[in-house]
Amino acid sequence: MKAKKMTEKKLPQRQCMGCNERKAKKELVRIVRTPDGEIKIDASGKMNGRGAYICPSLDCLKRVRKSGRLARVLETQIPDIVFDSLEEQIKLLNVLS
Ligand SMILES: [Zn+2]
User: For residue 30, which of 6, 8, 34, 42 is within the disulfide window of CB 3.0 to 4.6 Å?
Assistant: First the structure.
């Protein structure tokens, strides 16, 4: 239904579920609910499914985890293990950068 604007020159921006800041898509971590209903961390940013974004920040993760917003956006329950692996992922990203 959505027509893609080919003339768009700006980097695609997405909103973090934790702090509500809009950032370049590639600066955020994507969490996706696959068509099979699995919740995955999408490192490539290209996985099929409904996606949500979060800053690679433990503060934002904490906020998201507390608010339950991710479950609402993805319309499914988020298992603890997803948050745990997100935390690991974010820690790793912070070590690397
Ligand atoms: Zn954030």
Answer: 42
